[in-house]
Q: What sequence folds into this?
């Protein structure tokens, strides 16, 4: 029988060793815990949606994976794909809320941690994959949504990344109306804004001359391009940025409204308890402007700006206009967890696990004593200590080799002599220290070695 070469598809190749998977799972749980701490409710939607749903907001069809069966008959309805894999979590959320708005309590606060699929060019070194996890939160209301929801989002993200302990970070905020008003001042019409914003988005990645040249190619006069570049590129403290915007005093309603909104958001973020050093107004945040209508967010690591944004989102006026006539404004933010995990691993920023499934290994020296080994393990598990019994017949050296390779912290060993004396040997696998312990002292001794709380 011919062998099939074991290989993965390009872009679908984020596959971990068990210890790495445990670290990934720990991040998922940390994010979930913090989302729920702020009252967000869990939601999962199907991996596949109807094609017309996914393309309703103009999703790039070339990036959407359609569904079809390998062996579907030509006359079968499924031969012509009707469904496709979701490319983000926002469109399925819009469809979900439109279908269930009578059943939901508004404001609707949901979190969603699931895979999405996108047919873009994979770049492993930049943490870009075709299959990846997103962790989203959104607050959605009917007709109106308080600006306080926009201010609360940074406090949730601050809670997540503070507990993640991956170094200093800054939640960079801007406002869609401020940017639109600045462009209006330079006589850049809405219809011409996209290439200008695309050029401004390259400020951190390209030389000043290259950005200015691109602005001029897209119709911005040289003097205006230089002034616009200076406004957008300069990094300022939050109060300095607000003072600048006040001094600019551009005489258009959009700009005035955006500056007022930004000021209110900043004051509210402070009231939510986010420290001054953890957020800042950044006029260079220009992402998603075809979708967002108010506050926009990007989060970056201070010591690792090369990693790029680790979390982004913003305010939108109407989530589900393609599915319902009910106006549903909202605000949301997304952590691209697969990309973040890849970059944190590369930068050696992942924290060691406090606890893993591999805590205690009960070795087996005498097959006839199996019941004793199983009883020891059962007692430890009853006390919330993760415990495995080595069930294969093997020399003790091989069992210890297994324990070290899998990452166990403690090994318990006993043979007929120890059982006759009512003792076991307990070994700290990190220090290699071993001691004889009475059977009645196994649990407190192990817990002390693991430094876990007695429940």
A:
């Amino acid at each position: 029988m011919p062998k099939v070469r074991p290989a993965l598809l390009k872009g679908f190749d984020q596959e971990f060793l068990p210890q790495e998977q445990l670290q990934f799972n720990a991040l998922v749980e940390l994010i979930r815990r913090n989302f729920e701490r702020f009252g967000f409710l869990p939601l999962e939607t199907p991996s596949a949606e109807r094609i017309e749903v996914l393309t309703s907001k103009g999703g790039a069809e070339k990036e959407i994976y359609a569904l079809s069966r390998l062996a579907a008959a030509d006359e079968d309805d499924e031969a012509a794909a009707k469904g496709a894999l979701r490319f983000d979590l926002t469109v399925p959320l819009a469809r979900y809320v439109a279908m269930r708005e009578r059943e939901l309590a508004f404001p609707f606060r949901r979190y969603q941690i699931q895979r999405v699929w996108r047919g873009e060019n994979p770049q492993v070194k930049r943490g870009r994959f075709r299959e990846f996890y997103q962790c989203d939160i959104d607050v959605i209301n009917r007709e109106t949504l308080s600006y306080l929801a926009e201010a609360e989002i940074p406090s949730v993200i601050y809670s997540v990344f503070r507990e993640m302990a991956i170094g200093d970070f800054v939640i960079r905020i801007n406002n869609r109306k401020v940017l639109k008003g600045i462009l209006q001042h330079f006589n850049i019409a809405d219809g011409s804004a996209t290439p200008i914003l695309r050029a401004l988005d390259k400020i951190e990645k390209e030389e000043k001359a290259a950005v200015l040249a691109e602005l001029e190619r897209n119709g911005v006069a040289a003097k205006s391009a230089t002034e616009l570049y200076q406004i957008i590129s300069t990094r300022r403290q939050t109060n300095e940025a607000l003072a600048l915007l006040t001094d600019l005093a551009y005489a258009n309603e959009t700009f005035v409204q955006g500056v007022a909104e930004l000021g209110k958001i900043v004051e509210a973020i402070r009231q939510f308890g986010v420290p001054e050093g953890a957020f800042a107004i950044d006029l260079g945040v220009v992402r998603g402007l075809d979708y967002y209508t108010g506050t926009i967010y990007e989060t970056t690591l201070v010591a690792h700006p090369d990693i790029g944004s680790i979390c982004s989102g913003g305010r939108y006026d109407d989530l589900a206009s393609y599915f319902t006539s009910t106006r549903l404004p909202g605000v949301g933010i997304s952590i691209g967890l697969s990309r973040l995990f890849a970059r944190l691993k590369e930068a050696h920023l992942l924290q060691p696990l406090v606890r893993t499934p591999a805590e205690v290994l009960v070795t087996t020296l005498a097959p006839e004593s199996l019941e004793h080994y199983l009883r020891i393990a059962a007692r430890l598990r009853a006390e919330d200590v993760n415990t495995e019994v080595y069930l294969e017949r093997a020399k003790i050296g091989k069992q210890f080799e297994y324990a070290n390779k899998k990452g166990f912290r403690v090994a318990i060993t006993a043979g007929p002599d120890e059982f006759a004396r009512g003792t076991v040997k307990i070994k700290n696998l990190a220090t290699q220290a071993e001691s004889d312990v009475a059977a009645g002292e196994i649990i407190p001794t192990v817990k002390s070695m693991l430094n876990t709380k007695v429940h």
